[in-house]
């Protein structure tokens, strides 16, 4: 028997019998989940205009709000249930919940590919997010069981490489599949391609993942999950409904109620924590000022970046007439920049330059996003003018996203490290959903019913993105000069 970092028991007698080859096969099975998650997020932006055209040809309206929900519904469900998915892995075992998540994700992908109307497609995307939230947390949990701390360093390096390649492959794969129009499936193939991958992951997971990697004693905060989910949905729903400007009575009531719902969810969380009951997050974490600031930077940055990519891919096709394949290929400089920023700049200079790395990244994003959107608004005057802006945007994205986690966790007590990491990932996913809602609503609402005809929607979306990025810049400047300097235990960071 072994114990994990929280002291919980892990049954691992079958793990001890695994050879290095079996461990490697198990590891690359888990990598499949990472690829599915990243590709499914990045591929959707390329496919949205094709979906709108297909539904319109059949007399069904896939308007801006529906398009936003197709993208945001996945992120919202994924983010809300991520911590819950981790808890389920604690109770039932990483292998069991990984396989459950893969089955759910594969079936939800099939439903997406077969969806006959926008409402069914949105529902299937939400189900994909739910399944992804069950599948994703088990990856790190099982890797922690498979390898000792030293071995994990080399294995986790693969995540940056594979993640970067998956980010590049997503838009390109989406463009290729739609352009190929295999068997007349069109955009549906971007979801149906998950079926053979999912089946292969299921078979490999069943065969190679170690059995009985269960953490005993974990409990689920169902009340907290539902309470925070209701509060966040009350904020998101009115934003997405405001596609054509203005709010109806229901939207206004929901938005007005969201602060109270958030307060009630937080108040209940604190009371349950004081009573020793299970909670979705430990309220003590928010006593750490550096963690609060780092998490807020992550939230705002994720909203700005996701909103930028959502509008950028849509506008290239709807305004400039790019094909899905051309749109995917244009993303290559951005993805290359992400790999440079995340794999080199952020990692190399964060310890020496501290907050100035994040300040530089925020400024780079302000400049690059402005340049890219003005290029689109002016009708795309020469692709060579756009590519440097996209490369800079990718460098800024990678240089900012990489330090978010180490900065936020720099002074977190090791007892809370696992919970804090889970919260940060949840915050980033919530940022993605809010970014699509905020930036997408500005783009569709001010762009009017035919968003391709004028530049107003582009400038409106850019305005929201710039406000978010200025917020990131100010928060980065507010960070302490010596982020990683030791702080006396009696002093709050």
Short description:
The chain is mainly α and 493 residues long. The protein has 17 helices and two strands. The longest helix is centred in the N-terminal third of the chain and has 38 residues.
Give a written overview of the molecule.
With 493 residues, the protein is an all-alpha fold. It folds into three domains: 1-219, MFS general substrate transporter like domains (Growth Hormone, Chain: A, Up-down Bundle), CATH 1.20.1250; 222-279; 284-480, Up-down Bundle (Growth Hormone, Chain: A), CATH 1.20.1250.20. It is 76% helix and 1% strand. The protein has helices at 20-57, 64-92, 94-114, 118-135, 137-146, 149-180, 189-192, 194-208, 222-241, 249-274, 289-318, 324-330, 332-353, 355-377, 383-408, 417-447, 456-478, and strands at residues 2-3, 9-10. Helix 1 (20-57) packs antiparallel against helix 2 and helix 11 packs parallel to helix 14. The chain is globular and about 55 Å long. The two termini are 38 Å apart.
Q: What descriptors fit this protein?
A:
single chain, 3 domains, two-stranded antiparallel ribbon, 2 strands, globular, disordered N terminus
> Which structural class do you get from the secondary structure elements?
mainly alpha
Instruction: Estimate what percentage of residues fall within beta strands.
Output: under 5%
* CATH class value of the largest domain: Mainly Alpha
Per the CATH scheme, the topology name of the largest domain is Growth Hormone, Chain: A
Largest beta sheet: what is the strand line-up?
1-2
Which descriptor suits the 3D outline?
globular
How would a textbook summarize the main sheet?
2 strands, antiparallel
